[in-house]
Amino acid sequence: MAEPLKLNFSAPRRGLPPKHFADLSVAERVDVLAELGLPKFRAKQLAKHYYEHLTADVAAMTDIPAGKRAEVQAALFPVLMEPVRQTSTDDGETTKSLWRLHDGTLLESVLMRYPGRATLCISSQAGCGMACPFCATGQGGLDRNLSTAEIVEQFRTAAAQMQAEGSRLTNVVFMGMGEPLANYKRVVQAVRQITGQDGAGFGLSQRNVTVSTVGLAPAIRKLADEDLACTLAVSLHTPDDELRDTLVPVNNRWPVAEVLDAAKYYADKSGRRVSIEYALIRDKNDQDFRADMLGQKLHAALGSKVHVNVIPLNPTPGSEWDAAPRARQDEFVRRVLAQGVPCTVRDTKGDEIAAACGQLAADEREAPAAS
Q1: Which residue range is the domain that position 347 belongs to?
Q2: d(CA 259, CA 252)
Q3: Known catalytic residues?
């Protein structure tokens, strides 16, 4: 018998990133400014520059006293992410960025442009401890949780990039590296800043934010009680516990029925339809009986408050896991629909740029050092 996969719910202790404006409450920002000899109204000025003008360059903030700008930069806006490389595909519509954090940790984000909208796939952890065997990030393990500011900075840099292109960032999905609900406090703080209004954040609608999870049932319920209007996406990948124990090892702790019960609680509290993510894997979870079972269980648990996203698997190099054939995919969707559950195939982007989360970081770690 194969040795069971081990889950890692706690991040290894690494050097904490320096405190940043986005990590601090308004009162804490005022305290830092007071230490620099600046009045509290400067905190509102900085927030306007950061959230509205999308800049963290204090040298360009002409309403901040010139003699204090360097000190404010060092105290409140340290550089948290340095670009390592960026790759593009889909005629430039999809851009994947690899960043190096202050302690050498690698981080990925993906910006996807569509007609009339642009979506950022954001990371909540560097690596992931959930150990899903078909996921490149899960194969690499967990480095550490990201700070609130490291999450927020992914949004700000992408929003600034879209602004420079004469457009804007319209959607955010927490579907990058990591399990968002395993870094719960910082993810919620980041969501509140991404969606905050009137100088408290970037002003994105909560309805345009999706938080994904592999099924941490207690955290799903806790998120429901935050009274946010974000979409919850549950990475289910199979409707039966027997297979899900292998595909999503956290299922050993919170089985399918418990996850769906928590998802129903979220749907009832938020009024939002839950998205079920289903990576379709050849000969693993693509059988007719699983499509039927998926539709039946979702219809019974969530009624009309659910939608299934079938995701053609983006395989990692050398992996045994491969995408289901197109005919199998179409039949799977047809069977879920037949159970009265909305089901569509996600429009995938960036296959040729290692778009599966974790692939760029893995490539970078494995690359030989320059001589």
Answers
A1: 81-366
A2: 11
A3: 108, 357
